[in-house]
Amino acid sequence: METLLVTHAACFEHETPPGHPECPDRLRAVLGALETEEFALLHRVEAPRASVEAIERVHPPIHVETIMNGAPVEGFRRVDADTALSPGSVEAALRAAGAVTFAVDEVMAGRVRNAFCAIRPPGHHAEPDQAMGFCLFNNVAIGALHAREAHGLTRIAVVDFDVHHGNGTQASFETDPNLFYASTHQWPLYPGTGRASEHGLGNILNKTLPPGAGSAEFREAFTDAILPALEQFQPEFLFISAGFDAHAADPLANLRLTEDDYAWVTTALVQLANTFCNGRVVSTLEGGYDLAALASSARAHVRALQLAA
């Protein structure tokens, strides 16, 4: 079966202030990297809008209304110091969350093996009641709860290898033992959450990496901790928060990963999904701010997804 690529042109219309690292060129870099002949067999689909019902499984109505009604007619409206709404932001956010729920539906129907959602704004910093860290809605958490509510699954896992801790995903999961969240991230670093001592109900696993850590430390965290924990959890569906800002070239942090590390971890996660959940994997774009490194890392990630499809 094919690998699904879900995106939408509306995701380019979420503008950010001049010089902001989370810019439309990020998505252009990712999609450009997937236009070569080796990706000719990707099944490419435009993302639908997420339903308000799907979003409100994660975010309370007041938060959804604040975002939906908060976009300015022109210019920018700040949500916090790092996060802003522009005239196109609401449509982009609806398409971003909708990409993940649609990908879940396609994977569950058996029409595709797995999926990559090339979307923005990213989502893993968005807490249930607060947009932050470039994120408006928590796309991966919305997808996870959609998998459970729409498809009757019980055990849902999210693995996050963005260089920043996914505080929003952890906040959405930490009181539900049937939701599992594992993260590798640089520590200390924004947003200040994700200490190794944060376990939730035993369903949260944070593997912190010191500044300067590279392939060896990253792969050890997965081999010794995250993959065994996933095996014990036995997920019925696996999501990946695919941030590529732990790359050595990225300007926002200090880890030293390479494209080979992203290929390796993707292959390891797909193999685990093949064992426990019939290969059901949906990956969604999070961070990555050096355009060349982002492009090459996304290429390696999707190639690994495709080889398993």
Structural class: alpha/beta
Give the helix proportion (percent range): 25-40%
Give the overall shape, derived from the CA principal axes: globular
Instruction: Say how many strands there are.
Output: 10
Q: Roughly how many Å apart are the termini? A: 5 Å
CATH-derived topology: Arginase, Chain A
Please state roughly what percent of the residues sit in beta strands, choosing from under 5%, 5-15%, 15-25%, 25-35%, 35-45% or over 45%. 15-25%
Rg of Cα set: 17 Å
What is the spatial order of strands in the main beta sheet?
Answer: 2-1-5-10-9-6-7-8
Largest sheet: 8 strands, parallel
The residue ranges in which pLDDT falls below 50 over 5 or more consecutive positions are none
Q: Number of folding domains?
A: 1
Number of helices: 9
In terms of quaternary structure, what is this? single chain
SSE order, one letter for each helix or strand: EHEHHEEHEHEHEEHEHEH
Mean pLDDT: 98
CATH architecture level-2 label: 3-Layer(aba) Sandwich
Question: What do we call the CATH homologous superfamily?
Answer: Histone deacetylase domain
> What is the CATH class designation?
Alpha Beta
Write a compact overview of the structure shown:
This protein has 309 residues and is of the alpha/beta class. It has helices at 24-33, 52-55, 61-68, 89-108, 139-151, 167-173, 215-233, 259-276, 291-308; strands at 3-7, 43-46, 77-78, 84-85, 114-117, 156-160, 179-186, 204-209, 237-242, 281-285.
